[in-house]
């Protein structure tokens, strides 16, 4: 455990400096569609928590209030390392609440990420909150991929036959695509969900397996095999042959954008300042070497560290001792520590370059939505809008 932890620190530090190896993602879903189970298993699969604990210990539900209510309230941040084609990637995962009352938190999490894994229950199909979270992602210019969860239920509960399975799954995809087309007609051309391309993954978060068309080519485990394994109740072998984290995180790495790619298309939507100004250029290019722009998306209270501002570093490099202006206040705050996540733990580091999710102490004037910057006059980001109604509103 200790060795695994230590080695992981070095790997995370190495990747933090390489934006092309970073993916900042959120998982969003209608309540009960399996977001928590999925997050746990991704963490376990990438070696960040023991595989035996996943599922038992709902990792991201750490708030007492959440546990009492049995739902996820806070958008917490965890990071993991995933290997594709011999290269390692740092996946920063922001957990988003599934309950409609906490829609504001979902939107905040969306501001920090560049890609979204939309989870839909294979049996229930898209639900009102699927629409809401998808809309929130699209209005922040966050690219979606689709995870169709609980495929085991189609086979073992609904008892559909082999031929019907792809048809049922195809209907879910069509419906999500209809939503994307309606909400974001411009992006639809490139963001259309397409199983053949690998932007749709099918699986079971509970039983820890998943397949995609690209994974089928690699592992030889296709829909036929999935069907047979489920019928036999041999989930263990299925999850060994085609593990959930491989199929899904491969799709994340291949299809969701790097911070540099994403900022080029997201900044014009979320920031209305002058793109030709020095800070505008820093934001558009995710420049680590000039102005600091750190947007706070969440404030955590830590029993030891006190208030921790978590957010997305869009430009510059954060270091301890820096004096930052916090939007809306006249004075500067001194950065006391900077940290990234390793699993669900915060790991203090000397500095964090742009494109990462950072946890900072010392920004005592920061509130959710504020920006910490080296600039006294900084055009704030667009207000984070909370959309809970399934109707098209302002652009
Ligand atoms: P969340 O509200 O989206 O976070 O959903 P949870 O992860 O808490 O899952 C809701 C329920 O669905 C729990 O009882 C899970 O055990 C169950 N569940 C999650 N994934 C699967 C799956 O792949 N198959 C089946 N059969 N049940 C699942």
Topology (elements, then pairings):
Blueprint lengths: L1 H15 L5 E8 L5 H11 L18 H6 L7 E8 L2 E9 L7 H10 L2 E7 L6 H12 L3 E7 L1 H6 L7 H20 L1 H7 L8 E5 L4 E3 L1 H7 L3 H10 L2 H7 L2 H12 L3 H12 L7 H8 L7 E10 L3 E10 L1 E3 L3 E4 L5 E3 L2 E6 L2 E5 L1 E3 L3 E5 L9 E3 L22
Parallel strand pairs: 1-3, 1-4, 4-5, 5-6
Antiparallel strand pairs: 2-3, 6-7, 8-9, 8-17, 9-16, 10-15, 11-12, 11-17, 13-14, 13-16
Helix pairs in contact: 2-12, 4-5, 5-7, 7-8
The protein binds guanosine-5'-diphosphate.
The site of guanosine-5'-diphosphate has 17 residues, from helix 2 and helix 6.
Question: What report would you give on this structure?
Answer:
The protein is 36% helix and 25% strand. It is of the alpha+beta class. Strand 6 (200-204) and strand 7 (209-211) form a beta hairpin. Helix 2 packs across helix 12 (244-255) and helix 7 runs antiparallel to helix 8. The longest helix has 20 residues, at 164-183. The radius of gyration is 20 Å and the shape is globular. Residues 50-75 and 389-395 have low confidence and may be disordered. Bound molecules: guanosine-5'-diphosphate (GDP). Guanosine-5'-diphosphate binds at residues 29, 31-37, 72, 98, 149-150, 152-153, 204-206.
């Amino acid at each position: 455990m200790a060795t695994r932890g230590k080695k992981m620190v070095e790997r995370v530090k190495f990747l933090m400096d390489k934006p092309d190896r970073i993916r900042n993602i959120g998982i969003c879903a209608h309540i009960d569609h399996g977001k928590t189970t999925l997050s746990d298993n991704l963490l376990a699969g990438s070696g960040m928590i023991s595989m035996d604990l996943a599922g038992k210990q709902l990792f991201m539900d750490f708030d007492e209030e959440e546990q009492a209510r049995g739902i996820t309230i806070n958008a917490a941040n965890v990071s993991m390392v995933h290997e594709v084609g011999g290269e390692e990637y740092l996946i920063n995962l922001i957990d988003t609440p599934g309950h409609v009352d906490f829609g504001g938190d979902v939107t905040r999490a969306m501001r920090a990420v560049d890609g979204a894994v939309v989870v839909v229950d294979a049996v229930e199909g898209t639900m009102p909150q699927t629409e809401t979270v998808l809309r929130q992602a699209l209005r922040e210019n966050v690219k979606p991929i689709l995870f169709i969860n609980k495929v085991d239920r189609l086979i073992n509960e609904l008892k559909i036959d082999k031929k019907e399975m792809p048809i049922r799954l195809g209907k879910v995809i069509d419906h999500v695509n209809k939503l994307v087309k309606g909400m974001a007609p411009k992006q639809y051309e490139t963001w259309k969900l397409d199983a053949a391309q690998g932007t749709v993954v099918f699986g079971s978060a509970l039983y820890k397996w998943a397949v995609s068309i690209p994974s089928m080519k690699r592992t030889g485990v296709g829909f036929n095999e999935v069907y047979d394994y489920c019928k036999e109740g041999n989930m263990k072998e299925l999850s060994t042959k085609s593990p959930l984290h491989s199929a899904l995180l491969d799709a994340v790495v291949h299809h969701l954008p790097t911070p540099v790619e994403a900022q080029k298309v997201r900044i014009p939507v979320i920031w209305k300042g002058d793109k030709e100004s020095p800070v505008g250029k820093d934001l558009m290019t995710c420049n680590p070497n000039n102005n600091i722009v750190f947007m706070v998306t969440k404030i955590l209270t830590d029993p030891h560290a006190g208030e921790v501002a978590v957010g997305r570093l869009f430009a510059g490099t954060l270091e301890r001792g820096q004096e930052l202006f916090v939007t809306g206040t006249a004075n500067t705050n001194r950065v006391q520590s900077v940290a990234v996540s390793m699993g669900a733990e915060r790991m203090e580091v000397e500095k964090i370059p742009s494109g990462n999710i950072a946890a900072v102490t010392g920004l005592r004037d920061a509130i959710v939505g504020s920006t910490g910057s080296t600039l006294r006059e900084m055009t704030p980001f667009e207000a984070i809008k909370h959309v809970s109604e399934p109707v098209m509103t302002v652009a």
